[in-house]
Design brief:
The complex is a heterodimer of chains A (about 525) and B (about 450). With about 525 residues, chain A is mostly helical. Chain A has 24 helices and 2 strands. Chain A folds into 2 domains: about 325 residues, ABC transporter involved in vitamin B12 uptake, BtuC (Orthogonal Bundle), CATH 1.10.3470; about 170 residues, Orthogonal Bundle (Arc Repressor Mutant, subunit A), CATH 1.10.10.10. In chain A, strands 1-2 form a two-stranded antiparallel ribbon. The N terminus and C terminus of chain A are likely disordered. With about 450 residues, chain B is mainly alpha-helical. In chain B, helix 4 packs antiparallel against helix 5, helix 10 packs across helix 11 and helix 11 packs across helix 12.
Chain lengths: ~525, ~450
Amino acid sequence: MTHLLLMLMAWLNASGMGSVSDAADLRFQISDFRIFERSVTIAESLTDRSIDWPDWSQWQRVLSLRDYNTRIVMLGTGLLGLAAGMVGSFTLLRRRALMGDALSHATLPGVGLAFLLAPKFGLDGKSLPVLLTGAALSGIAGVAAILYVRNLTRLKEDAALGIVLSVFFGAGIAILTIAQQGAGHVAGLESFIYGKTASMIADDARLIAGAGLASLIIVTLLFKELTLLCFDDTFAGSRGYPVLLLDLVLMTLVVAVTIIGLQAVGLVLMIALLVIPAAAARFWTHDLKRMTLISAGIGGAGGLVGSAMSAVFPNLPSGAMIVIVCSVLFFLSMFLGRSRGILVRVARRWELNRTVDHQHLLRGMYELLEIQEEPGVATGRNVPFSSLLSMRSWSSFRLRREISRCLRNGLLVRNDDQSLSLTDSGMVEASRLAHEHRLWELYLITHADVAPGRVDQAADAIEHVLEPELIVRLEGLLRQELATQGVVPSPHPLEQIAADATAKTATAVADHSLTSSQKDETP
Amino acid sequence: MNVIENWSWHYDGWIVLAGILCAVSASLPGNFLLLRRMSLLGDAISHAILPGLAVAFLVTGSRSSLPMFLGAAIVGILTALFTEWIRNLGEVDEGASMGVVFTTLFAIGLVLIVQAADHVDLDPGCVLYGAIESMFVDTIVVAGNSVPRVVIVLGSVTIINLLFVVVFFKELKLSAFDPALSTSIGFSARLMHYLLMVIVAVTAVASFETVGNILVVAMFVVPPATAYLLTDRLGVMIFLSVVVAVASAVLGHLSAVNVPHVFGFQSTSTSGMMALCAGLLFFVASLVSPRAGVIVRIVRRQKLAQRILSEDLIALLYRMDERSPDCAVSVSELCSVLLCRRWLAAWLMDWHARTGHVVPSESGYRLTDAGRRLGAELVRSHRLWEQYLVLEGGVTVDRIHHQAEKLEHFTDRELRDRLDSVTAAPELDPHGSRIPSEHTD
C-alpha cells in the first residue's frame, strides 16, 4: 500500500510524468522509494494521523545545526532562495514571472539527451557537469523557442511559454523513458524532476553558492541595464542598449538558477522560489535595489526556515515546506507591506476619507452660516445638527464622528441647545476651504466652460487635493473675476443647498442642475 | 517501417482513442484560454487541484471518481478566484499571482498527501500515475465489450466540453473578445470565466488520472495555438484545433512505438510523444501558415524586394536615357549605381528583356518603348512626390529624395494625377529635372 502511495508521490513530484512502459515503471517505483526514504524519514507509527511534535532535543539539534546534513541542506536551500529571489525580482518586473515555469520544464530533454549521448563521446552519463551542460543547452533552446514564437508568430507571450513548457517537457519525458531502458542506473536523472533536498551534499551546496555568486556579479554589473530593460525596454532600445541581448542575459540567469534549483527542490517548487519572494518584495518598496535585496532575503529565509521545519518535523517534505514558508511570507507582505500592502492602502484610503469628511463638515458649516447672514461675523451663530445632516448623503454616525473630532480639535463648539458653532480658528479654516472650493468652481466656469449648475459637484471631487501652490496660481489666473478680497462669493446660489436639503440624493442632483440651468438663462 | 505489423486494434486502437479523446477534450476549452491570453492556466490548474484531490481522499477515505472531480472542480474555481483576488487586492501582475497561487496550492497538496499517505486506504485501481499503456487494468463491460474505464471517462468529458462550446459559443466568443460589452448586454463575462475554469479543472483531472497531465497541459495550448496561426475565424479555429489534436494523438502514438526502434530502443512514452508531435505540427504551421507563416512572410518580402529592384533598374535606365538618348547600359554599370548583387541584377534584366522592356545588345541593355513608358511612370511618380514633399510637406530639398524613392513604387496613375493637380502640374521638380508627362494612348 505504501508502495502505491510512493507512486502517487512520484506523480505528484514529477507534476505528471507521462506514461512509462511496465519494466521502467517498476524501476521508477524503486528509485522513488529511495528518494522517498531520503527525503522523508517515515514516521515510526503508521497509524496516527497527527504530526509528531518534536521534543526539545530535536529542536535543539536542528537549531544548533549539529547535524552535518542539516547544515548542508539549510545552507544550500538558503543560498538557492537568495539567488532565485534576486533573479526573480527582474523577471517579475519584466512581467515574465512564469518564464521560470517554462524554462525549468525546458531543461528536461537536455538532461535525458546528455545521459544518452555522453557515453558515445566517452563521458560518464551520470556526471553532474555533463547533465548540467545538457540542461543548460536545452534551456537555451527553450529560450530560443520562446523568442521564436513571440517575435515571429502572432501569438502572445503566454502562449509561447505554454507551448515551450509542454512540448519540451513531453519531449523530455519521452527521452527519459528511453534512457531508462538502457543500463538501468538512472537514479541521478529523476532528481532533476523530483529534487533531492534532503540528500544534498556539500558539492551541491558549493555549486549553488558558485552559481549564486556568478548571478550576483552579473546582476550587479548589469544592474542599470536590467533596470532599464524591466521598466522601459523601448526606451532602452532607443538609447542603443542591446535589448535582445539583455533579454537573453536575463533568461540565461533564470536558466542557471533553475538548473541548480532543479537538483535541489524539484521542478514546481523551483518556480515558486522564482516567483513568490519577488512578488512579496514588491509590497515593501518602490525601489528596485531594495526590492532585489528584500526578495533575496525572503527567498533565503524561506529556504532556511522551510528546510529547518522539515528537519524538525520528519513528516513534512522539505521542498513543499520551503514553498509554504515563502507563501506565508508573501501573504504577510501582501497585508503588511510598507509601500503597497493592503493595510497601508486601506489606511491611506481611510485617512483620505477622514480629510474629506472634515473638510465637508467645515465648509458645510460655513455655507449654512452664509445663508443665514452675511459671512465673517457669524462666529457665534448656531447651526442645528439636522441641517448639517441633510446637506450631504452622509450617515449620521459619520457626521457625529467627524463633529466630535472637530470639537476635540477646538474648531467647533457645542451650544446648550445641541446646535453647533464655529470657533475663531474653525472659522479661519472653514473660510479657507470655502474659498478654495469656490476658486475651483470659478475656474471651471471661466476656463473650462462648465455650466454653473454643475461646478459644485466637480469642485467637490477635487478640492481636497488642491496644493497651496495651485491655489496661488488659481488666484493669479482668476484675478479679474475676484473683485473682492477674502472669501470668494459662491458662483451659484447657495439657497439651493438648503432647498435640496429636503430632497434626497439623486433627485436633489437633478433638481439642482435643472433649476440652476434655468437661472443661467434668465440674466 | 513496421507501422502496421505491430499494430493491434485491440491494444493500440484503444490507446489512440484515449489519446484522441484527451487531446480533443482539452483543446476545445483551450481555444478560449488562448484568446483570453491565459494559456498557462491549464498548467496552473492541473498543479493546483492537488489539494482538492488530497482532501477528497481524506474526507471519503477512498478514491472514487465523483469526489475527486468535485474536489478538483472546487479547487479549480478557487485557483481562479485566488488569482484574481491577489491580482486585484495586491495589485500584482497576473502571471505572478498565478505563480504564487498554483505553487502554494501544490505545496499544500503535497503536505496533505504526505500526511494522508499512511492512512488512506487505496486500492490497486486507484493509481494516479498517468500511463495510457496501463489503462487495460481497469475496464468496464459495455454492451458485451470490455471498454477501458479511461475511455468512458474521457469520452464523457469530451462530450461535456463539446456541448459547452456549442451551447455557449456566442457567449464564450463575446466574453473572450470583449468582456465589457458581454457584461453590458447581459452575459456575465465573469460567469463565463468561472464556467471555463470548472471545465478546465474537470478536463485536467479526468485526463491526468488516466493519461498523464503532460498531455493535457500540452493539448490546452498547442492545438489551439496552431489553429490560431491558420485562421482568423473562431469557428474554423476550434475545428482546426480539434483536427490538430487528433492528428497529434495519432502521430504521437505511431512515433512512440516506431521512432525509438530506429535507434535500437524499445517504445517510449506515448503521452510525451503526443505532446512532442503537437509541438512539431505547431512548428510546421508557424512556418507555412498561408497568411502569417514565417516562410510565407520571407517569400513575400523577397518578392517585394525584387519588384522594387526591378523597377529601380528601369527607372535608372530611363534617367540615363534622358541624359544621352538611346544609350546602352551594361549590368555592371547598373550595379555600381544601385549597389545590388550582380547576379540578381543580371537575372532581373534578363527578365525585363523577356517581357519586352529592354533589348540586349553587345554593350548592354537599351530601353524599348514599353520600357520607356514604365520608366517614365516611375520617374514621374518620383519627381511629383519630390515636388509635393517640398510644397505641401514642408520638407527641405536635400531630404526629399529618399522619401520619394520609397513612395514611387506604390504610386498608381490615380495618385499621380492627384499629386499633379495638388502641386499645380509643375514642369520641373525641386532639383530642376523635367517631370515626364503622363503617357496617353
